[in-house]
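Possible regression after last week's pipeline update?

I re-ran a chain I had predicted before the update to compare outputs. Posting the input and the new output here so someone can diff against the archived version. Not blocking, just want to make sure nothing changed silently.
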Amino acid sequence: MRQHLLMYAFAVVVWLAYVSFRMLSVPAADRNPNPAAFVYCLVLVGALPGALGYLLLFKALPWAGRLLRRSS
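New output (post-update):
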C-alpha cells in the first residue's frame, strides 16, 4: 500500500506541475493580474482533485471494504 501511496503522490505532483505550467504559459496580456487568482486556480484545479482522490482511494474505499467484510 505504501508504494501505491508514493506513486499517487508522485502523480499529484506531476499534475500540479502540469497545471502550473499551463497557467503560466498563457500570454501575460490574457492573464488575471491578481496573484491570488493563480493560487486559487491552482488549489481548485490542481490540489483539490488530488486531495479528494487521496481521500477516496486511501481512506473511503479501505473503510468501506472493512465495513463490508465485517457485515458478512
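Follow-up from reviewer: compared with the archived run. The chain has a mean pLDDT of 92. Marking as no regression found.
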